[in-house]
Amino acid sequence: MSECENEVLNNIPEAGELVRLAVNIREKAYAPYSGFHVGAALFADNGKIYTGCNVENASYGATICAERTAIVKAISDGAKKILAIAVSSDSNLPTMPCGICRQVLSEFCSPDMPLFLSNKNGEYKVFTFDELLPHSFKQSDMEDVK
Ligand code: THU
Q1: Is residue 71 in contact with ligand 1, taking CB distance under 6 Å?
Q2: How far apart are CA 29 and CA 13, in angstroms?
Q3: Residue 67 beta carbon below 6 angstroms from any ligand 1 atom
Q4: Which site among 15, 40, 119, 144 is 20 to 30 Å from 47 CA-CA?
């Protein structure tokens, strides 16, 4: 492991910190259609934290979820891998990422990546990525056709 990778792994934020950021960034959600505010905060392999909120659109299908906002911010800033993510919403229940966000996450995380899925008060449950999307479709699933 390189020194740089080591430094990142030694500075992994606490779950509680990521959850707090996810809860707070919800305020920025643009959700005039659903009224459902979602926030996400992820820790990436470059040692940085990225946050995101849902951004809705009058053409409903153009809506971008909080998780994907944060993922696109991270990757466009040069991050290569997501090491942990927290998600929060207005609900009293833990916020479960939608199927599209699970698939997008699968491109950039390991099966054992932790997800801290929080309710509106910051109370969270921990899952691994593999629990949420086992047998995901990956680049390697296309290899035999290349
Ligand atoms: N939403 C997210 O931001 N993340 C999810 O994983 C589930 C759904 C948003 C999309 C839409 O703006 C609102 O929640 C209701 O579906």
Answers
A1: no
A2: 23
A3: yes
A4: 119
Cβ pair 97, 87 in contact under 8 A: yes
Stretch 117-122: mean pLDDT, rounded?
A: 98
The residue-averaged pLDDT of 67-84 equals 98
Q: Residue 54 CA: which ligand 1 atom is closest? A: 3
Sequence-ordered list of residues with C-beta below 8 angstroms from that of 129, at least 6 positions apart, any chain: 102, 105, 106, 109, 110, 111, 112, 113, 115
Percentage, residues of the chain above pLDDT 70: 96
How many CA atoms are closer than 13 Å to the CA of 98, on its beta-carbon side?
A: 11
Q: For 121-138, what is each residue's pLDDT tens digit? A: 999 999 999 999 999 999
* Active-site annotation holder among 5, 14, 67, 131: 67
The CATH fold assigned to 3-145 is Cytidine Deaminase; domain 2 (3.40.140)
